[in-house]
Automatic annotation (TrEMBL):
<comment type="similarity">
    <text>Belongs to the ArsC family.</text>
</comment>
<dbReference type="InterPro" id="IPR006660">
    <property type="entry name" value="Arsenate_reductase-like"/>
</dbReference>
<dbReference type="Pfam" id="PF03960">
    <property type="entry name" value="ArsC"/>
</dbReference>
<protein>
    <submittedName>
        <fullName>Arsenate reductase (Glutaredoxin)</fullName>
        <ecNumber>1.20.4.1</ecNumber>
    </submittedName>
</protein>
<dbReference type="InterPro" id="IPR006659">
    <property type="entry name" value="Arsenate_reductase"/>
</dbReference>
<dbReference type="GO" id="GO:0008794">
    <property type="term" value="F:arsenate reductase (glutaredoxin) activity"/>
</dbReference>
<dbReference type="InterPro" id="IPR036249">
    <property type="entry name" value="Thioredoxin-like_sf"/>
</dbReference>
<keyword id="KW-0560">Oxidoreductase</keyword>
Length: 113
């Protein structure tokens, strides 16, 4: 079973979900802007991604540029920022078991099939 942290308004997220469905993979869809991951959820996801919180921050978002650009934050502070501003979480993230990938490009998800 795959879990996709999905934003239906994002073309990459839609493309990744479509690729999952075309390959007949069972998938749980979490619209993370509505079901905001907790700090603990993000810690687990980041461990599976083998990334630090700053690596999944969408730096093109206005909220990033206005509030966080050019500033230094600890991993714990970034987790709080991401929970408070889920729009900053890079998307989509797809998880299977103890592995996870960013769906950028969408083909990355094939590593989980």
């Amino acid at each position: 079973m795959l879990t996709i942290y999905h934003n239906p308004r994002c073309s990459k997220s839609r493309s990744t979900l479509q690729l999952i469905q075309e390959n007949n993979q069972e998938v749980e869809i979490i619209e993370y802007l509505n079901q905001i991951p907790t700090k603990e959820d993000l810690r687990k996801i980041l461990k599976k991604l083998k990334m630090d919180p700053a690596e999944i921050v969408r730096k093109g978002e206005a909220v990033y540029k206005e509030n966080f650009k050019g500033k230094e934050f600890s991993n714990e502070e970034w987790l709080e920022i991401l929970v408070d501003n889920p729009k900053l979480i890079e998307r989509p993230i797809v998880v299977k078991g103890d592995k996870a990938v960013l769906g950028r490009p969408p083909e990355n998800v094939k590593d989980l099939f």
